[in-house]
Specification:
The complex is a heterodimer of chains A (108) and B (142).
Chain A: H1 4-22, H2 27-53, H3 59-81, H4 88-107
Helix pairs in contact in A: 1-2, 1-4, 2-3, 2-4, 3-4
Chain B: H1 2-18, H2 28-45, H3 56-73, H4 80-89, H5 97-107, H6 112-134
Helix pairs in contact in B: 2-3, 2-6, 3-4, 4-6
């Protein structure tokens, strides 16, 4: 398994590609929002990847936990705005796919 | 650039006109409900290494209390944010409480490591709901 630093560097690159490919018209905002989300979950993701590498978490459990972070982010957004944004699910689905695919390529 | 500006303008205008009006005043009942449900949820999740069927009555009771809180939130004017938060909690397809209970049911038991990690997530979910309620404007007679 590569180091967490390797994973994080690759993840940021992949997130920028994701933002450019899928959210081109709001790329800068999408990249910033993605990086903010990644920063918020970084410590948890690092701990989960370690647990995955140690065999204490399954890949399925890792996926579920990362998706759980999405729910926390959505709840926080609702708290801050009082409104649900219609593109939120679509944005986070793509972001989560990017995180998971990067994690599985570098960890497994 | 023009298209981007127009696409940004509409949600900003929407937020400007409706953002301030969409938050209700603080509600003590709602606050107490969310605290109580958080405590019950975390206590129940701690038992998820057991067979799901052994805790069916507790699970049903928890789900009922969530439903009561959700239905109560819908009776409060300008409460769209809190209502949407409870909808995430009670969505079995989400990775929040009801989604977790569904996972427990399908897997029969959950692993100890996963339980420890998921309790942190569920606690964060409820802390967000509780914090949101607590930060709402307090009525003068409270």
């Amino acid at each position: 398994m590569k180091t967490f630093v390797d994973f994080w560097i690759q993840l940021i690159t992949n997130v920028e590609t994701f933002a450019a490919d899928k959210w081109n018209e709001i790329k800068e905002e999408a990249v910033e929002d993605s990086k903010d989300f990644l920063t918020a979950v970084k410590d948890d993701v690092q701990r989960w990847l370690t647990l995955l590498a140690e065999g204490k978490l399954s890949t399925d459990e890792l996926s579920w936990l990362i998706k759980g972070k999405r729910e926390v982010a959505k709840l926080l957004l609702l708290k801050d705005t009082g409104l649900a944004q219609p593109d939120l699910d679509k944005f986070f689905e793509g972001l989560l796919e990017t995180i998971l695919s990067t994690a599985f390529k570098l960890v497994l | 650039m023009k298209t981007f500006t127009l696409r940004l303008l509409f949600p900003l205008l929407f937020l400007f006109f409706f953002g301030c009006a969409s938050v209700s005043d603080f509600n003590q009942v709602a606050y107490d409900q969310s605290l109580s449900i958080k405590s019950d949820a975390l206590n129940l999740i701690s038992k998820a290494a057991d067979n799901y069927s052994d805790h069916q009555s507790e699970i049903d009771s928890l789900k009922l209390n969530v439903e009561i809180a959700y239905q109560y939130s819908k009776t409060i004017p300008n409460n769209t944010g809190t209502i949407a938060q409870w909808e995430i909690i009670r969505d079995p397809n989400s990775s929040s409480l009801f989604g977790l209970l569904d996972r427990w049911k399908s897997k029969t038991q959950l692993s100890g490591t996963f339980i420890s990690e998921v309790k942190l997530l569920i606690a964060s979910d409820f802390n967000t709901i509780i914090d949101f309620e607590n930060r709402k404007r307090k009525p003068l007679n409270n």
